[in-house]
Amino acid sequence: MTDWVVNLIDAGGYWGIALLMALENIFPPLPSELIMGIGGIRAGQGQMDVVPLLIAGTVGTVIGNYPWYWLGHKLGEARLRAFVSRFGRWLTLDWQEVDKLSGLFRKRGEFIVFFVRFLPTFRTIISLPAGLFRMKHSHFILCTAAGSLIWNMMLVGAGYFLGANFKRIDDYLGPVATATIIAVAVYYVWRLISWRPRTAE
């Protein structure tokens, strides 16, 4: 994966960074840590400037998150209610839990979207409930951009100062991503077995 990312960045420059960061948020297995870290390496080598690099990475992140937000916004709570009524057993959700999530998003949605930007996997998934629970477009874009900018600054800084050794992160990201997916799958199976809808109590 590293060679492919490096080649696209070298060929596409800032456009390549923006494209990769958009794809990373549509297909989470493509890690932002690697993309922006390599961008930081190129900045340290004088091949890129930090400010346009950060702008490209942040714009790409927002673009990549928006389809999930749009999907949730189009689905809406009315369709979600019907979906939960039909498939709640497999989602391990009942409507009371959805109501709690909705209330939480209405009160703390901006903080949730901002801080979840620092969590692998969840930073993409969070865009769906943000749309479902009708978070304002402007707030969603602003919070996503702000959290992404800070995260990208950290990654670019790491790449800038660690240099070529940063590429070795790819050797660790694969196993970590696999372990995360397995852990989520195990948790889901446990929830599926143990979950009982409150309406049935």
Helix content: over 70%
Strand content: under 5%
| End-to-end separation | 49 Å
Number of domains: 1
Major sheet size, sense and barrel closure: none
Task: Sum this structure up briefly.
The chain has 201 residues and is mainly alpha-helical. The chain has eight helices and no strands.
Annotation keywords:
201 residues; mainly alpha; globular
Topology:
Layout: H1 2-26, H2 32-44, H3 50-91, H4 95-116, H5 122-125, H6 127-132, H7 137-162, H8 169-194
Helix pairs in contact: 1-2, 1-3, 2-3, 2-7, 3-7, 4-7
Task: Walk me through what this model shows.
It is a single chain. The chain has 201 residues and is mostly helical. The chain has one domain (2-200). 82% of the residues lie in helices and 0% in strands. The protein contains 8 helices and no strands. Helix 1 (2-26) crosses helix 3 and helix 4 packs across helix 7.
